[in-house]
Amino acid sequence: MAESYSVPRPDVPMPQTRESKARTALTRVGFDFKGHGFRGLLSASVGLSLFALFFLLYGVTSDGIPVLAERGWDFLSSPLSADPSRTGVWQGLKGTIQLVVFILVFAVPVGMASAVYLEEYAEDTWFTRFVSLNIRNLAGVPSVVYGILGLSVFVKFLGDFTGGRSVISAGFTLSILVLPLVIIAAMEALRAVPQSHREGAFGLGATRWEVIRHQVIPYAMPGIATGIVLSVLRALGETAPLILVGAVSGFFTTGDQNVVEDLQGPFTALPMLIFSWARQPKAEFEELTSAVIVVTLFVLLLSTLAAVLVRNRFEKRRQG
Amino acid sequence: MDDSSSSSMPGVLTVTDFIGDRRRLRQDKTVRGLFLGASVLSLGISALIVISLAGEALTFLRQIELSQLTDIGWFPRRGMFDVPTLLAGTFLVTGLAMFVAIPLGLGSAVYLSEYASPRVRTVVKPALEVLAGIPSVVLGFFAFTVLTPGLIQRIWSDAGAFSLLSAALGIGLLAIPLVASVSEDALHSVPDSLREASYGIGASKFTTVTRVVIPAAVSGIVGSCIVAGSRALGETMVVALAAGGSGGHLFTTDVFNSGLTMTAAMASLATGTDAVKGSAAAFQSLFFVGFLLFVMTFVVNLIADRFVRRVRQRY
Question: B185 — contact with chain A (CB < 8 Å)?
Fold first, then answer.
């Protein structure tokens, strides 16, 4: 039935007698079962995915919101404790912020520099192609593997400098993890800059660096900024490398320390708290885990909002 | 600049005027060198991964007898390093996850690229991106607190509190946006002229999408599935939380009960470090499994890269 609705394929010779059939098939108004069925299936897959998303968000946050409502600020500012009614996420929040600072200081400048080199300076040689292939591959390396790298290089080999299982080791590990992501995002943003912008500046006698500095980067900045934020968001949620590098899964105290001792000492981060509390046998910790998830998702949401604002700002300046 | 002043006729430019002044050229060269250094750093990272993992993996292989690699199960603390146990768990979880992610992800991609109105797109696309941005540890928590009791144990009443299936469903959810976004890119890059030609000879929308657009984008679609598979192979936190099996597991292909994947084995070796330290081989096995996983995902990623780039180059 439905088959007659579509036109015979042009490569199949159409016998004379079918000409009239084809005409009626083309002009007939009927119900296209196949088309509507297909569309229905596609809509169902979108619907199911979205339903899963909402179910997921509801499922992981519903138990935590009462805890947050009851504990309020106290939950955010208290240190870790084995007592579920007193424990808080302060050290995790602090660790996560420190890790983000590490990424912004190390991965972002190196990543941008690398992207600028590959997009603007490098000629299309086998070496350039090899470097970009390598970067794309690094982006697909599982995060646990970066964790092992961090364990053997930063925790063991450079232990005297990093203090072993410390936020320094984790910061460098996560920086290495997000570096390829930053490079790829920045390269894509640079590729979108119209060639005429570069040619105009070259025509006025600018050197390549001046073209990049004053024409290319300002134009590509909204895209680069978005890419950086997405990479940071990815790093915020990473847990596996932290486990390998040895974030603390129990509780620890942070007393009066100087900055270096603090950076070289034990640490934890928000996703690590989710992991370790989810494995706690005490029933109260299930609600607490949900509460940390709410805090973590809130941090992610805030960063995303910040990214949108920054992006719009850069875009406005570009249109100027 | 000083060279041009030696030119006798004022107002006449010579070649030297176009070379630019030395300070600016030197600056350009310095920047170029520095940025080249930044690019080479990524090669260094790859080399570091290969050298440190391969070296430690070799040390591990030297410490044990090869028969220990095919034992009855993976119990590192008792000197049983059965690789098939880990591989079976890994492939079961990855396969099941793809069973969830590929239909839903592809369906969403085709819908968004070919059917959705601009208004629907602006709502659904960011929503899928939100799903992509949820940390995997959260999905792990979801899998074992919500999916296991709420879905899996209701359908299969003999399923355990921890199961490979639960982990697979969690990873499947996580991979949906990955499949969707890469395939949507591929479908989107199919030129409109192909669609118009198809409509022009009287084809219906269904025929156009299934016989023209999807075949034209097929290499990108296949690529997206492989990318998602590679991500599922390396996913750690969902399995570590939802599949149980920390500390060790017997060889199993029963997805309704606990099991162990390569990644989960690594996570549990690392969380129990203090206990493991006594046996050097157990700790060293971490690097061996890591190297194995690295090699596997490396090969898969290379294949996916070829597919994804083919569609980009064609159009």
Answer: no
pLDDT at A286: 84
Two structure tokens written together for B306: 């070829």
Q: What is the pLDDT of residue A7?
A: 58
Question: Where does the pLDDT of residue A2 fall: very low under 50, low under 70, confident under 90, or very high at 90 and above?
Answer: very low
**DSSP states of chain A as a string?**
-GGGGSPPPTTSPPPTTHHHHHHHHHH-----HHHHHHHHHHHHHHHHHHHHHHHHHHHHHTTHHHHHHHHTHHHHHSPP-SSTTT--SHHHHHHHHHHHHHIIIIIHHHHHHHHHIIIII--S-HHHHHHHHHHHHHHTS-HHHHHHHHIIIIIIITHHHH-SSSHHHHHHHHHHHHHHHHHHHHHHHHHTS-HHHHHHHHHTT--HHHHIIIIIHHHHHHHHHHHHHHHHHHHHH--HHHHHHT--SS-----S--HHHHHHS----HHHHHHHHHT-SSTHHHHHHHHHHHHHHHHHHHHHHHHHHHHHHHHHHHH-
CA distance A169 to chain B (A): 15
Coil, strand or helix: which one is B299?
helix
CB A177 within 8 A of CB A143: yes
DSSP β-ladder status, B73-75 and B249-250 = antiparallel
Q: What angle do CA A198, A202, A204 make, to 5 degrees?
A: 125
Residue A251: which of A288, A296, A293 has the closest Cα?
A288
pLDDT tens sequence across A40-51: 999 999 999 999
Q: Which residues of B touch A240 (CB under 8 A)?
A: 136, 236-237, 240, 263, 267
Q: Which amino acid is at B256?
A: F
Q: Does the CB of B46 have a partner CB in chain A at under 8 Å?
A: yes
Query: What number of other Cβ atoms are within 10 A of residue A314's Cβ?
Result: 18
Residue of chain A nearest B234, judged by CA positions:
A142
Nearest to A274 by CA among A95, A144, A141: A95
* CA distance linking residue B275 with residue B283, whole number of Å: 10
Sort out which chain B residues have CB atoms less than 8 A from A239's CB and list them. 135-137, 236-237
> Hey, are the CB atoms on B237 and A240 less than 8 Å from each other?
yes
Best probe of the A interface among B42, B114, B273, by most A CBs < 10 A, is B42
- Among chain B residues, the shortest Cα distance to A271 is held by B137
Helix axes B83-110, B262-271, angle to 10 degrees: 120
Three-state DSSP class for residue B249: strand
* Residues B219-255: b if buried by 16+ CB within 10 A, e if exposed: bbbbbbbbbbbbbbbbbbbbbbbbbbbbbbbbbbeeb
Q: What angle do CA A106, A181, A299 make, to 5 degrees?
A: 75
Does ipTM surpass 0.85 in this model?
yes
CB contact under 8 A, B297 and A289: no
Q: Which residues contact A180 (CB under 8 A, 6 or more apart)?
A: A111, A135, A136, A138, A139, B42
Per-residue pLDDT, averaged over A161-178, amounts to 88
Those residues of chain B that have pLDDT short of 50 are 1-8, 273-276, 278
Minimal C-alpha gap between A317 and chain B (Å) = 24
